[in-house]
Amino acid sequence: MSRKFTKTLGAMVAGTMLAFGASTGQAGTTTAALGDVDDPIIIPVHNWSSQIAMSHAVGQLLEKIGYTVEYTTTDSQAVYEALRVGDVTLELEVWEGSFATAFNAALDKGGILDAGTHDAVTREEWWLPDFTIAKCPGLPDWEALNACAEMFARPDSGGKGVYVDGPVEWLHDLDRIEALGMNFIQIHAGGAAALWAELESAAANDEAVVVFNWSPNFTDALYGGAFVEFPAFHDRCKTDASWGINPNMTSDCGSPAGGYLKKAAWDGMPRKWPAAYKALTRINFTTNMVGTMAMFVDVDEMEHADAAARWIEENEEVWSAWLYASQ
Amino acid sequence: MNTTSLQPVIRCQTLYKIFGITSDQLQKDSQGLIDPSYRDRQGVVTAVDNVSLDVSDGELLVVMGLSGSGKSTLVRCLSRLIEPTSGSIEIEGNDLLAMSEKELIELRRNKMGMVFQNFALLPHKTVLENIAFPLQMRGMKRAEFVERAMKMIALVGLDEKENSFPRELSGGQQQRVGIARSLAVEPDIWFLDEPFSALDPLIRKEMQDEFLRLQSMLKKTIVFITHDFDEALKLADRIAIMYHGNIEQIGRPEDIVLNPATEYVAKFTSDVPREKVLTAGSVMDERKEQEALASKSVRIDDLVETIAEYVLGQSIPVPVVDAQDQIVGVLHQARMLEILFHERAGPSGS
Amino acid sequence: MRGPGHPALEATTTPFKEISLSRMKDLLLKGLPPEQRAKGALVLLAIVGVLILAKPFNLIPDFLDELPQHTYQSSINKEIQEIKRTELVPIGAALEWTFYYLRDDLHVSVVTRFFSTSLKALVDVVHNILSGGRKGFGLDAPPWSALLVIALTLGYALKGWRLSLLGGGTVCYFAIFGLWTYAMTTLAYLAVAVPISIIIGLFLGIWCYKKKSVEVSILPILSVAQTMPHFAYLIAVVVFFGIGHQTGVIATIIFAVPPMVRLTLLGLQTISPEIVEAGKMAGCTSRQLLFRVQLPSARNEIMIGINQVIMQCLAMVVIAAFIGADGLGFRLLHKLIALKLGECVEIGFAIVLLALVLDGLSKAWAEKKRDYRANLPFYRRYKYSILLVVLVAIAYILASYFPILNKIPRDLDITYAKSWDGFIDWTVVNWQTRDFRYIMLVHILTPLRDALLFMPFIAIMVLVAGVGLLLGGYYSALLTLGFLLFIALAGWWDRAMITLYMVLFSTFICIVVGIPLGLWSAMREKRARTALFWCDTFQTFPSFIYIIPAIMLFRVNDFTAIMAVVAYAMVPAVRYTVEGLKNIPPELHEAVTMAGCNKRQRLLQLQLPVALPHIMLGVNQTVMFAFSMVIIAAFVGTIDLGQSIFKALSETALGKGVTLGLCVSFMALTVDHLVVRWARERRRLLGLD
Ligand SMILES: Nc1ncnc2c1ncn2[C@@H]1O[C@H](COP(=O)(O)OP(=O)(O)OP(=O)(O)O)[C@@H](O)[C@H]1O
Ligand SMILES: [Mg+2]
User: Fold this and answer.
1) I need a labelling partner for C370 at 20 to 30 A (CA). Which of B80, B323, C278, C424 fits?
2) Which residues of A touch C138 (CB under 8 A)?
3) pLDDT of B342 strictly over 60
């Protein structure tokens, strides 16, 4: 049997080759400026839509100028270690709130380059969906939220409101509730999916909910909503207890409203793929662009590669500035 | 046939198999000597205990003994399926225990065959493949081994079953496959561990007859284990009786029955029907001068069983002749009666 | 029983020097005789009780109450704070140092990197053959209809029309629901991981069989590997092999090999020694003996091993996506995070179908008979191969005329995801769980957890070691004590207790629901088969999918995590109960029938007692499943070891991750050791072995 099986398999392979011939691959002309076009540039993709689609868009653009590109799926935290050793070549979305720790640690160890900052600003904060805002007058102000705390109570919260934070590992501000004297407790969802499940469940049951969220994100399009307005962030808020409304504690303010969104690269990239690295430093996403991409995928349900192609088609003037800007 | 001056085919001397001790350990503990104290140790079983025996060319040695007396273990030592703890074994003059793995394989491929007590058929192979297996190992061509295996299948009466798997056969059928498998290579030395035990009486008799016919033609050297005294008597040139790993006695069937060497053998053979064991030669009296003799003689190796009726019917002694038709003794009616009825009471009566 | 002359038996018979110690050894290895156990248990409970009661009176010194720990949770409603950061023994740091020393100073990474590069090339080639692209040979993708006819013919040739339809149906499922490229990626990945796992497993199994010393040193490693949470060793895999698709393959192989080794070894060890002797008498060289006698004779166990490999590989499809394995798993994860549950279910079923087909094909292939004598003409002997070639050729030709047969258009947009979404939403709205949750959380779970956290660690150690002493003697006591001491010294005690409480409670629910369900299913043959089918399905259905609906129903809390664990760990409780009852020898049933038993008597007098050891093994498996799922349930949001493992994974904190993994593994092994010990003894007493 096994012999028969291998035979048929062999025949199949041979048949395929005869019928279609081995395609020869693209014969790239190696130019000094491009660098090594045969060795693929490896772009990591993570598990949220805008990042995947954007990575595909950039990948397709690099292919346009003659590079070989491969995508590899990685964990969004582990990717910085991979970048340092050159397992992947670049990273397009370094969010300040979630990845600054890992990114900075990698910068310290060496092997990784900061390839510039996008125009898009990010924000990570307590967030209320529209169907909740409608329930309590004065939202999204934090004092109004506190007044309605009972609305957010759960069976096991002892009458206090419940704020669904992200996983502990995201290292958010753990003292804010106490510092602001809020009638809330904080529980930790295990990951992004758990947060959205909380949202969806609340939406289905028309219950009030306040969760950790960030912008730009697909939830904007899905539910509409707003960040809770806490006392504005200030540098001293984190270090100086006397600052702010609670004279005895730090952390009596919201998170910074405009976090950065950076690009990162393996430090071998400028040597190996000079033109690609130049382009990477010029690549610049705006909040709107990231939102559009997320829309294509999450709302219009396009495949990532298709979404990327559509974006490229519709935004020629944007990307040609990245690729062909005069030095 | 049992006492040729030629070198024996199988010769083993002071053979021990003690489970729970390896021969290396023995070397270390007591310079290779068997220390009687081993027997008392917990977890140690002396399965073969100081056995020495010779089997000559073309001889059929039957090994008997109670369950657990070490018969299978002895045979496994003789085929070196297990390593004896101490002692020596020679096969056709070659030291079996000194053979390398390669020589051993050659020996088994070309010289030895074995039928196992529990059949030991390969579960994943059909009847045909099982029987052909040793042939394949010898590197025989496919067409050849299929033909040969089919012949064996016919010989043991399993036609039409060649594509069945062992699990689809009855116990007796499986045993016949085992026999066919060991016969397929035409071994010179043949070990059979209770080969007919799972057969029904009819087939068993058929197989025994077939076996005798084959043996008279092929003259193999055979060690045959059985629990069935009738079978032993029918087949054996010599019988060895084992007890607790010892060979209590080894000899021709009638010697064992007439002159049991130990109490145990005597008890073991007490129920044996003598007429089936004893030959005219072993019970005849000396011929007295001028004695009138019956007209028809009997042969010296005729079993009592077959001549009793005739002797009992004669009022005068019956002559016993040897192969050259010389009269070597006589049988009296009275002696016959004594053998058939009187001595039946047991060794104490004799 | 075994016949004489079996080499393994000889090797294990008691050596001399130990015989004088045999009485001592009896006590060491067997524990208290069953009739004295009740007394022993009472004494044990009394001691533990005293230890617990002593705590409120401050009679327990601090170092026996609680060792220094990593994190500390002060009370349920207060967030976790990292207060005491130093463990007693820096196990994590030591491990980390060792691993990096291995990788960087001993240059193990050269080997591992080479391995991972070769694997990547292999996966690329297979992937290229299946779905085209530039990697590998650079072939064009075969038309999907060619794969369809291959699946149909293969299924038919190996088994019959049922398998043929299952295979064809699965291919169509991929095509119709727009999963084609992902499924091909996963298939390519499996086509590499499964055979490699089988080969490595066979090799190690044989090696263990031949060398006792290897067996003794490998088996404990396998136990740990099997109980280690996937995410814990993913970190090690990433550190040594990098990230990417091939790393997923490696992680999968590591996970799939242990059962293969165990079953190969078991199969080889249980061959009747006479069969081996028959092989020797046929003049086999040791190679021939192995390949033509021993391995084929151990076929049943080896086939179960292969089945296990396939199941484990498919279970890893989603988990490996965390470290870069592409395909259905990654797709599912992505859809899960975007909360597209219906699509997740769609993908989940694709994975289940793939498992069923691969399992069916491999089983059928192994059972195929060969007819030696039939002297068939060429075209009949190779009829299926010829048929296959012809059909594939036709598929190619047709595909060049009808593009729909070549490539399913992406925007086909056929899906049943929406109805699943609708169903899930409906359930969430209509099943109000608020009151239920309140009772469970406030009155049962939280008190249970607090009680476990309250107990001084010495009390728990005494309890577990005592049970070990009762069931298995000093050996078991020391082993379990060692396991727990590791957790305590590594500084993860409280987290481990939280994990334990979730596992225990989930197991409790699984027993209460699963065993009666199994009993009910086993009453009728047909029901039993249906039950086993669903067990297979649930076992391969990616466990991640359970989590999100559970959150939507019960929101983020421990109860939700427990429900997700229950959904997954219920399977073995049901399966083993059904099997245990089905495997009761028919003569026993006949005897009971002749004694005039009614149904209830039959159940109580015969079925339960005889099947109990097997059912207990099922409970043991449930506990093992619960330990593995409770870590995954950290996705709900728990504060146990699982959460810390995820943190370690995202920080690539190797030492910490492995330490945490070992903590989980040791807890699981403690339970496993005690239960298996008990069940074996019972089986022996009942004469079922
Ligand atoms: N592998 C083994 N390890 C330990 N003891 C063994 C082994 N094989 C056989 N024995 C013991 O050796 C003794 C002789 O066994 P053996 O199989 O040779 O008996 P037997 O005469 O063939 O019995 P039977 O007529 O039942 O086949 C028995 O007491 C048996 O328990
Ligand atoms: Mg025997």
Assistant:
1) C278
2) 22-25
3) no
